[in-house]
Each structure stands twice: as C-alpha cells, then as structure tokens.
Amino acid sequence: MSLIELLTGSVLFTAAAGSSLQLWALASAAAVAEQRQQERLEQAEAALSRAETSLRALAPSAGDCTTATAQLLQALAAQPLAPGLARQLEVSPSGDGVVLRMAVAGEAEPRQRLYAPAAFGRCGIPQGGGGGTP
Question: 118: which residues sit within 8 A by CB, 6+ positions away?
Fold first, then answer.
C-alpha cells in the first residue's frame, strides 16, 4: 500500500467517523429535548391535579357565587408552579367560575380547565334543606 492510498483511506475513515459522531450527537440531543418536554407535560398535569385537590379541600359554604369565585381564584393563584409552565387565571365569561390555562413551553395549545364554585359546594346550595312545602 502506498503512502497516498494510506492517507486517502485515513481521511475517508476520519470523515466517516466524524459524521457518525455528529449524527449520534444530534439524535441524543433530540431525545433529551423530547424527554424534557414530556417531563414538562407531566408537571402540567400534576399541577392541574393539585389545583383540583386543593379546591376540593376548601371548606364548603353557602355564600354567593361571586365571592366563591374570587376565593377559588385566590386559591388557584397560591398554587406553586414548576419551571417551564405558565399559568393564566380569569373569571369565566358567564362569571360563575374560574378558567385556568396552563401553558407548557414548546406546546402550541395550553391545557384549560373550568372550575365552578358550585361544583365544589362553595355556593348556590342553601344550607339546611330545600325550603319547600312538606
């Protein structure tokens, strides 16, 4: 084997090895990014679950729904939030609940939940019976 053949072979081998390493690095980076995105999605679902659990733990009351909606809004705003998540809270268009939007970095559509105070026993249900005729 001549020196030129040896040099050409080693250059080709080095180029092929370098390309292969670049492909492996790109594939690894994509896998890591996908794993992080999946973790953020799981954190969003856990945050939504914690929000509902905390609302269910609130003591029931028979107040008006406007006050109860404000209380739900405060309770949801007090929840901790993981990095990579963004929370948006607003009163529903009908005014009888709270809309929670949980945006995950890298996702086009946020997760959205409507929490109505009446569903958690916070308003609209008179205490002590139906008040009808016996």
Answer: 65, 68, 96, 124, 125
CA distance 127 to 62: 6
Q: CA-to-CA distance for 94 and 134, rounded, in angstroms?
A: 35
Residue 111 φ/ψ, nearest 5 degrees: -75, 140
User: Which two structure tokens, joined as six digits, stand for 50?
Assistant: 């914690």
* Average per-residue pLDDT for the chain: 84
Tokens of 10: 């080693």
Give me the mean pLDDT over the 27-45 stretch: 90
For residue 115, is it left (φ>0), alpha (ψ between -120 and 50) or beta? beta
Q: At what angle do helices 65-77 and 3-57 cross, to 10 degrees?
A: 150
